Automatic annotation (TrEMBL):
PROSITE patterns: HCY (PS50970). It comes from Phaeomoniella chlamydospora (Phaeoacremonium chlamydosporum). Pfam families: S-methyl_trans. Its cofactor is Zn(2+). This is Putative homocysteine s-methyltransferase. Gene3D superfamilies: Homocysteine-binding-like domain. Keywords: Metal-binding, Methyltransferase, Transferase, Zinc.
């Protein structure tokens, strides 16, 4: 049972208690867009031709089947317990700039309508579920290869839908800044997956089919958030949805459904420990944890994504310190730690060419000093987190309920396979 001060678990953890010695660890997938740009798919996305980026593959059944379904299956077969949907850049604005492929030679198709955009975005969840059903692992209950089979509804920041993209800069149009504006923008997109009617209305939430309510196999991933006001806006949007859901009650007055658990993950492209908008780690933790209430629910996970791997150690320590400061008397671990860093230590994303290019090097460049594989370095970081968490639990001061670890841009299927082999090779040490 969750409360405003205790969010529900992000992922199923049978028999969990604060004194449990093992730390549950599960595997997330890798970089969707960059994997689609590599062999065997070799797709190219640009803001002019495909403003939806990888979400463009939701626009036709053929694209969904030939590319998305296949890649999702490969990540599952490589070891992923949790798969993100291809909805990260999905937005009404992006679909409004995208022409339909109507098959008429020499003619451009019409732009997608709002209703058509809704149907496309909703397909993102169904493709992942189909991939889990068809993947050649996890079919036998109790098998070592069994997967959790969790779908993560991937929702990027407003900046991921802008042209040019602004998730790394946090530079939003003036008319789209502030908690309330960003709350409304995220809420509009969230409604696509919750229902087709007004949130909380009898003819909406209660009577129309929802893709996410009442399903234990789905979580919501707010990813790559670059701004403090967007973090606050996301929590407010989830609070509005939660109030609508709680209106559904049975004859005894008990709530029939609850919000799916969600995580908030931020990006750190700067060399200091600040978000693109300049917020410190302490300020972002305050935005994530401050004033918990039904209208500002706590996320079940706190994460770092789309960030260079060499920055993780220091950032995680800062997260842990800030969480402890804000909740000094909490005996029960509250959150999952969600880590999915980039896999291209010597590359940066060029927003002009819209490609990954070698980064200029300096004598003190930490990313050039790597001799181990990406998966090996991430395994070491996970081990350190596990060790610290076990020590905290001895004193009744745990922070992390578990760890979800995977990759972001430039992390391939092979990278996820190696990561699972490394992180989960000691079955007695980690819960699965």
């Amino acid at each position: 049972m969750s409360s405003p001060n205790t969010p529900p678990p992000l992922l199923p953890i049978p028999g969990f208690s604060a004194s449990t010695p093992d730390i549950p660890i599960h595997i997330f997938d890798g970089g969707l867009g960059t994997s689609l740009g590599a062999s065997p798919y070799n797709l190219q996305f640009t803001s002019t031709k495909t403003p939806l980026w990888s979400s463009h593959l939701l626009t036709t059944p053929a694209l969904r089947k030939n590319y998305l379904l296949d890649l999702h299956k490969r990540f599952i077969e490589a070891g992923a317990d949790v798969i993100g949907t291809a909805t990260y850049q999905g937005s009404f604005e992006g679909f409004g700039l995208t022409r339909k492929e109507d098959g008429k030679p020499g003619e451009e198709g019409e732009f997608f309508t709002r209703d058509e955009a809704k149907e496309c975005m909703r397909c993102g969840i169904e493709v992942v579920r189909e991939a889990f059903e068809k993947a050649e692992v996890g079919r036998k209950a109790g098998s070592d290869e069994q997967r959790l089979g969790i779908t993560a509804l991937s929702l990027g920041p407003l900046g991921a839908t802008l042209i040019p993209g602004a998730e790394y800069s946090g530079l939003y149009p003036d008319e789209m800044t502030g908690k309330d504006k960003l709350r409304d923008w995220h809420l509009e997109r969230l409604k696509v997956f919750f229902d087709e009617g007004e949130v909380g209305s009898r003819n909406g939430m209660e009577e129309k089919k929802s893709l996410v309510l009442g399903r234990p196999d789905i979580v919501i991933a707010f990813e790559t958030l670059p701004r403090r006001d967007e973090i606050e806006g996301v929590r407010a949007a989830m609070g509005i949805l939660g109030l609508g859901v709680k209106k559904r009650r049975d004859g005894s007055g008990e709530a029939l459904l609850s919000l799916p658990p969600f995580w908030i993950s931020c990006v750190f492209p700067r060399e200091d420990e600040r978000l693109p908008d300049g917020s410190t780690v302490e300020e972002l933790v305050e935005a994530i944890m401050g004033c918990p209430s039904p209208i500002q629910p706590l996320p079940s996970g706190i994460g770092i994504n789309c960030t260079k791997l060499y920055k993780l150690r220091s950032l995680i320590l800062s997260l842990e310190s800030s969480i402890t400061t804000l909740s000094p008397n909490t005996a029960q671990p509250l959150f999952h730690l969600v880590l999915y860093p980039d896999g291209a230590p010597n590359h940066i994303y060029d927003t002009i060419t819209q490609t990954w290019v070698p980064k200029p090097t300096t004598a003190n460049d930490k990313s050039d000093q790597q001799t181990k594989s990406w998966a090996e370095m991430l395994e070491e970081i996970v081990n350190e987190v596990v060790h610290r968490e076990k020590e905290r639990r001895k004193d009744g001061k745990g922070i992390w309920r578990g760890i979800l670890v995977g990759g972001c841009c430039m992390v391939s299927v092979d990278g996820i396979e190696e990561l699972r082999e490394r992180v989960l090779r000691d079955g007695a040490k980690y819960c699965r």
